[in-house]
Amino acid sequence: MRDAGMIERAPLLNALTHVLMIAGLLIAAFPIYVVFIASTHDLPTVNRVPMPLWPGEHLVQNYTTVWNKSDFGAKMINSLIVATGVTIGKITLAALTAFSIVFFRYRARMLIFWAIFITLMLPLEVRIVPTYAVAADVAEPLRWLVWLFGFELGIAPINLLNTYTGLILPLVATATGTFLYRQFFLTIPDTLVEAARMDGAGPLRFFREHLLPLSRNNMAALATIMFVYAWNQYLWPLLITTDARMATATMQLQKIVPGPLFGQPPVWNEAMAATLLVMVPPLLVVIFMQGAFVRGLVATDK
Amino acid sequence: MADIAIRNVEKSYGKTAVLHGINLEIADGEFLVILGPSGCGKSTLLRMIAGLEGITRGEIAIAGRVVNTLEPRERGCAMVFQNYALYPHMTVAENIGYALKVAGLPKAERERRVAEIARIVGLEAFLARRPSELSGGQRQRVAMGRAMIREPKVFLFDEPLSNLDAKLRVQMRLEIRRLHQRLQATSVFVTHDQIEAMSLADRIVVMNQGRIEQAGPPRLLYAEPATRFVASFLGAPAMNLLPATIVAKDRARMADGTEIALDPGRFVVEIGQAVEIGIRPEDVMIVWPGSEGAHALEVEFTEDMGSSRLIHTRLGGMEFTVLQPAAQIEAEGHLPITIPEDAIHLFDRHSGKRLERHIPVIGTAASAAA
Question: Among A133, A196, A253, B221, which has the minimal tally of Cβ within 10 Å of its Cβ?
């Protein structure tokens, strides 16, 4: 109805809007197109100036080469494990933290709330050295704490380097997710909580059977954002994994770009093919989750 | 047995006291209505029985067991909320059956009881729907079904009808009454609607500013209100209240000199005492012009209410309404009336208390020197 009105009133403006949007789309999509074209040529063609803008004949060959050469199958699985772990961890932790902050009254509630708020200003990159130290030996902080009280704690070092746990855990804490959930939980009417209490549901049951189903849309949105965030992690996996078997797909990209010998041109065609390969899983997640997100919005839940 | 005993219960939020020493006994199977204006503390009291609000002082016992520290689920109460508070993500069947699911009943048993309750509240055709696809009245039925399915010892209603339109409200009122006759569960019903209170209650408790003004059967509260507040709150159209001063054992005089005759035997009054004379619009007698002791009232306008007419007039300079059966000839110009002495309610103007030789009050009338 609103669309019809707009066409009647300003057909010219409407057309202009479309032109602008299509132009924007082309500008955004062009680099990706170039990446795709580059991945279909052999190395000499890609390095020619100007590079051709029509697809070449080496598509299958480039993709097969780079897939086998850099062991992307295993790296993708690593990335998938890490990204899924981080996403599940973040959602669980964020939902539980927000649940505690919104629905329970206890003394340190506001303190915890502000402590979480402050971590917004401390992304992993800022605290990467201490985080690495802790990952290298999880028992270390505990040992220090006990030492402060004049005891020695005989715990063997717990090393998380080159483990999935080490890759996932430091990325799990999330102020953003906690806030997203908090804002949603605040919109839940008190009487709904009270009705559930009258029906005999305890806090955990209320969380599981009411809050989680009601926050499905939130969860889909958060999961999408967090999966892409975790998949694109570069610095932390680079730091914590020395074993090539634990490398993630994003890390692996960096190993492809340089040529086989120093001074040789980078292997752009294979690098571009690899880039597109690495982009596929987060893209699939976005497409899939967006569907769920929209379905959630259309269904009149509230 | 599920009687409720409320003993010296107080509630304050910080320094603000909202309930002052409430004492109330609710018998097993009784339908008690707590009536009062918004902010009088009636909902707070209900929520304290339910366990949704803490008790600052005093104690509440359900079926002989003090429940002060018990969780709502341990008290055996079910509650119907004003805004229904249905679970939006569950179907009607899931909403109604939720308490049984929490209680861990097997699925087959649950489904059987949900079907039975749905039949009672008339929702069989809607079991698969979500609350958002229902009308207000249907949602209210779901809320009732959800409360009923646990077969609770005590039903608590927090203004459950005030979100419904007038016609539906009357219908649901009857259904609640019918339901109570069938289940015989102790029920506490909070409302600000005096018609709801009159029609539903075995006993009404009128609350004002955190205190109980009067408790008793609807008929008694209507016929012999213990305070001016109860008198003005119960009854539609509202009781006429005329400020006057006692000039003799059998006479009170209003500010403009209009005198109203009193039955000298009924009231305990002193000469010079400031009082308010209460007279219900339906108790006013319309008489022939020139009758003895008649007041001629100037008619301002008339409201036709179908079965009756409400005539707005003035008596002694004060607003005064007279209810007249529609069958009578419509009054115009001057309306001659008399006030039957036995229909007069007399209240002290300062304390608001009923002035009568014997004060037939059940429960507490505790608004001392307001």
Answer: A133
